[in-house]
Each structure stands twice: as C-alpha cells, then as structure tokens.
Amino acid sequence: MTPPGAVAYPRLFSPFALGRLRLPNRFTIPALTTNYATADGFVTDALCAYLAARARGGFGLIVTENLGVHPGGRVMPRMAMIDDDRYVPGLARLAAAVKRAGGLVVGQLSHAGRQTKSRITGLPLVAPSAIPCPINRETPRALAVDEIRELAQAFVSAAARLAAAGYDGVEIHGAHGYLVGAFLSRYSNRRDDVYGGSLDNRARFLLEIVDGIQRALGRDFPLIVRLSAREFVPDGLDLPEAIEIARRLRDRGVHALSVSVGVYESFNKLSMVSGEPEGQWLPLAAAIRSATGLPTIGVGRVKRARVAEAALAGGQIDLAAFGRASIADPELPRKVRDGEESRILWCFGCNACLGRTARPETICPVNPAVGREATFAAVPATRPLRLAIRGTSVSALSAAWVAARRGHAVTVHEPGTVLGGLQGFRARVPGQEEIAETIEALVVRATEAGVTVVRTEPRPGEHDVLWAVRRPAPARGDRDTGTHRIVTSYDVLAAPGDFAGAGRAVVVGADLASTEAALLLAEAGVGVELRSPARDIAVDAHPGFRDVARRGLGRRGATIATSASGEPAGTSAGDRALVVVGGDPQYQDAEAGWPQATEIAPRTDDYLDDAYEPGRLTATVYEAVGRAAALDGSAPDAPER
Predict the structure, then answer these.
(1) What is d(CA 587, CA 416) in angstroms, rounded to the nearest whole number?
(2) How far apart are CA 34 and CA 360, in angstroms?
C-alpha cells in the first residue's frame, strides 16, 4: 500500500538518478556547519550519530558539513578535515554510520580562503587577491600561480580520500565567498593573470579541480558543485554569470548544482529568518536548470513538503534541501511519508543554529537533542515525582517533555489565554505567525510523552514539585504622566488589542521585543515612531530580524530613528501619545507581578526562565532541559511525598 505522504507528494517520494547513484527520494540535507568534530579535525561519535539520525528519518541524500582540504582553509574551531590520510578512518566511520541508517552520503570539500581568521587556521590567510573580507577584516595574501595549482590538487586528493572512505560522491563548495567562490567573483578576484579577469579565467580554478577529480575517480563518480547564483554585493556573481559557469560545469560532466546565494557580507540572504518567504531562492535554481539542463538542488528555507513538491512539479529543482528543518526534526521525511505532518517539530527560522549562539556547536531550541542523539536517551527517574509547571513557555514545554520521558507525572498549567509564553506573544507579530505551529508541535510532543496540559492554576496537594515560568520585562511599568501613557513593550506584546486605539506611539528601545511591539502597533493602524538608542534596531537578535522588521515597519508607514536619545519628540502637553519602553529587561517573579507563590502552592520550588529573543530563548530551553534531566525524588534535597 502506498504511504499517504507518497500519495500527497508523489515527486518528493520518487527516486532520482544522480550519476550512478539511485536516490530513494528527493529529500536532501545540504552541508550544515555543526562544530561536532574535534579541535584537531577528527570525526566524533556525536557527528556520526547526528547524521545517522537524519538518514534513519528518511533523508535520501546527506551532504556532510564542509570538510577542510588544507589547514589554511579551516573556518571553524572544530572543523572536520580531509587534508591528510590520518582522517580517512574517522570519515569512513561517518559514511558507514549514514549508510547503515539507510542514507547516501556526499562529502563537501571546502577551503575558506579569506573568510576565516588566522587565529583559527594558525596560518596567514590566502585568497585570489589581497582584499580583506569586510566581516572578518583580516587582509589575506594573494596566492601565487603555483600555490593555486597546489590547492587545486589538495581538493583532488581530498576527493580521492573520500572515495576510499566509502563516500557516494563529493561536492565542491564553490559558494558563499569561500576560496573557490572567491575566484569566480569579480568582487573578490582582481587578478590580471590566467586566474582573473574574464569569466573563463575566474572559473579556471574550479574547472581544474573538477578535471582533476574526474581524472582521479572517473567521470561517473558523482560530483556536485555548490554555487552562489547571486552574491548581492557590488561586482558579485549574478544569475547570468552563474548560468555561464553552470554551462561550463555541465560540459565538464558535473552531475548536479546546489544553487545557493550570498557571501559573508550578504549572509542574511542565505540564512533567512522567520518572516522571510519559504523557498525564496528556488527560482534561481529553476533558471539555471532551464538554461543548462543540469539537475539542481534547491535551498532557501525549504521546510514544508508542499513547497518542495510544488518546486519539483514545476520543474524548478530536482532535489529539495531541507537544512535547518532537518536540525529541528530529523524524522521530517518519515513523518511526511506516514501522513503525520501534524507531528513535525517545525523549525521557525530563529537561526540559533547558525548565529553566534551556536558556538561552539550547533544547538536548537526546538530540538535540544541535536548533537546528543546517542546520549539524549531518557534515564528513568529512580523515584518519580508529580511535577507541576505553571506556564507554557518553550522552556516549560521542553522540560515537561524530558521529565515525562523519565517517568515523572507531569502537569503543565496555563491559566492564561496564550500557549507558548513569550513566543506565543511573538506569534502574533506580522510575519512571525509560523511560531504558533512550532508551539503546537511542542505541545503535541509533550502530550505524546505523557504530559497533561490544563488551563487552570496548580493547587496545593496535587504535586510534589512546582516550577513556575518567569519572564523578563522592562523595569518601568504602566503609568500615566498626564501628557502621555507609558507602558512596556511586553504590555503591547501581551495585549496588542488594548492599544490599537492609540493615535500615535513612540516606542523607545533597541531590542527585538521593542522593535516587534512597534510592528504590532503599526499593523493596528497606530502611527509609530521607533526610537533606538543604539546604532540599529533589534540589536540583541540575529541581523536577519532587523532586515525583516525594517521592511515591515516601512510598509506600514512607521518611522525609525537610531542613536536616538533624550525625550521622544512630540510627547509634550497637548500631544498625548502612547510611549512604549523596552530594553533593560528584569525577570518578573512572584514579587513583580506574578501571583504570589502562596496563592498557588505552599512554595514554588524553582523557576524556568522565558525569553523573547531567540538566542536567549535557546539558552532557557537548555537550562530547563538540564533541570528536568536531573529531577529525581531520590535526590538528597527531594521533597517528601
């Protein structure tokens, strides 16, 4: 009998031939940085378990994270390396783990070029030209011709090692401004020799690598090239040049292109956040596929089967890359196949896995088991307890899930109207509605583990341990000065309808909560001025959220002032305005607006923090999960039952 998902999404579950490879479906994981390797570049059990879990979950093709072909090209402190034979056994173990789990594995070959730091490489940076990356701001040394050829051979030797380690193919990382991509682009390549100037010259390094790999491994060995179809920088690659490069690769016998976008300076275009359209860059892959006939792998916030199926049906792509979606839920393909999309743990584009929060390794507020797949198994509590949690923040729902898996009897109490705590508030913000389905998925995960969710207050005698969620809020509360009413950004986020009648509002704050409170008010038709005391808005969040918010505020007629100080304009007598203050968050506990602990139980045993900004949110989840993993009635300080 055909599984329901294969009926609903026939192309997504159809096989595909990639060179000599026969893929079982079109679900692909692109190369994603994890930092799960050792500091000296060896594969770890954690990296093997991470990729194997996704193969078991039904992803047909898995591309490893970028593997370093030369010490001078390291881009991460814990980057897996392939520049020496000593790394082959570990990489073979990784390939075997993926294959045992039912997947096919391609290794991505990479050299960072100028987009790294010498403190990571231990060597001077090298690049096509002595032009620093504007983000890392370290001037590289321009490579000599003989060095370029040596590096091309380093890619070839690395590919041969991967083939010996049992990999099903290799991918050359020619995107995102790294060394191969830097040669392709006039933005970073100002050479006047055979490796610079014309497109033929700029493509020479890449084509020498391709030719060398095919001489070493044969033209039928599956070979993919990752390419930025648009770089969004002056003189950077654009679609017409990308098509010309793709034609040259097709003629050389490359089997597929993974079509991405961006360089470090335009990384927000690549690492899109919630509020950005899903599948935004699929038309670029479609244009290259149409012009060249090369199979393409489509990327760009692909997380829903229906988006991938539509792109496949429309001839835009041949394979769909589910990147961050695979971090949040490694079983996504299996759930789609079995008609269980309602159980998918949806990535909501917070970018904790890609941003500064992810250092030193990939983490995820939706899936705190990521990177710990082999060790996250629930350890049964020696003495199970009755645990009550007041509040349904993401941290609370995650702690409840872990505690229930360990055998505790867990009841989550939500006396309020909104599930999800501060993220429930955030799901009301224009463009952030997808957060609501993530919250619902977390509720489903908890209830499947045995958690009971009720819309009442916890009562004494019904639990052994009580945890309560506390949330941050700006220090200044609701007050009226006579000339204007002052509320906090959290007041607006909690009850936006209460302020929809304000004629105008001045929002003062540099954080994400202030920025999105302004967006909510503007959506309600309020005339909004957002005044940030910093040089930008939403400075506590991933830069992508600033771009999304600026566009949203601009479309709704709001004005933005940065580096703003002093009394907000227009708040004098006779010009009554709503003033919304943000920043300076302090945690609200029983003494600052929460019901007194004695009203709901003899005592609150502990607090679980909530947070609005995704980086801090992720920290609260990991803190709460750790607390739930340690909860046991046999502990010396455990309560009496």
Answers:
(1) 18
(2) 8
Summarize pLDDT for 68-119 with one digit per residue, the tens.
999 999 999 999 999 999 999 999 999 999 999 999 999 999 999 999 999 9
Question: 271, 241 in Cβ contact below 8 A?
Answer: no
The pLDDT assigned to 597 comes to 35
* Residue 622 annotated as catalytic: no
Q: How far is CA 504 from CA 474, 518, 553, 572, in A?
A: 21, 11, 14, 13
For residue 273, give the nearest of 604, 639, 613 by alpha carbon: 613
Helix (H), strand (E), coil (C) string for 344-403: CCCCCCCCCCCCHHHCCCCCCCCCCCCCCCCCCCCCCCCCCCEEEEECCEHHHHHHHHHH
Nearest Cα to Cα of residue 11 among 309, 237, 264: 309
> Which residue is listed with tokens 């392939």?
82
In degrees and rounded to multiples of 5, residue 12 shows phi and psi of: -65, -30
Dist. CA 64–CA 43, nearest whole Å: 11
Pairing of strands 479-480, 484-488: antiparallel
603: CB partners within 8 A, 6+ apart = 466, 597
Contact present, 387 and 410 (Cβ < 8 Å): yes
Residue 216: which H helix or E strand, with range?
A: helix 204-217
Overall pTM > 0.90: yes
CB atoms near residue 22 (< 10 Å)? 11
Residue whose pair of structure tokens reads 């959506």 in the numeric block: 523
CB of 94 within 8 A of CB of 143? no
Q: In angstroms, how far is the first alpha carbon of the chain from the final one?
A: 51
- Sign of the CA dihedral with 158 first, then 164, 166, and 168 last: positive
User: What share of the chain in percent tops pLDDT 70?
Assistant: 92
Distance in angstroms (rounded) separating the CA atoms of residues 179 and 173? 9
Rounded mean pLDDT, 525-553: 94
Q: Mean pLDDT throughout 185-211?
A: 98
> What residue type is 317 in one-letter code?
I
Note every long-range contact of 277-283, with CB atoms under 8 Å and residues 24 or more positions apart, other chains counting: 277/301, 278/302, 278/303, 278/304, 278/307, 279/307, 279/308, 279/311, 281/229, 282/311, 282/316, 282/317, 283/316
Candidate list 9, 50, 87, 178, residue with the active-site label: 178
For residue 600, is pLDDT > 90?
A: no
User: How large is the angle between the packed helices 88-100 and 145-164, nearest 10 degrees?
Assistant: 50
Range of lowest pLDDT (212-216, 286-290, 582-586):
582-586
- For residues 299 and 321, the answer to whether their CB atoms sit within 8 Å is yes
pLDDT band, very low/low/confident/very high, at 580 (cuts 50, 70, 90): confident
Residue identified by tokens 């370290």 is 138
**pLDDT tens across 379-413, in order?**
899 999 999 999 999 999 999 999 999 999 999 99
Q: Give me 387's structure tokens.
A: 């645990």
Count other C-beta atoms under 10 Å from residue 84's C-beta. 12
With beta carbons less than 8 A apart as the criterion, state whether 509 and 532 touch. yes
> Mean pLDDT of all residues in the chain?
92
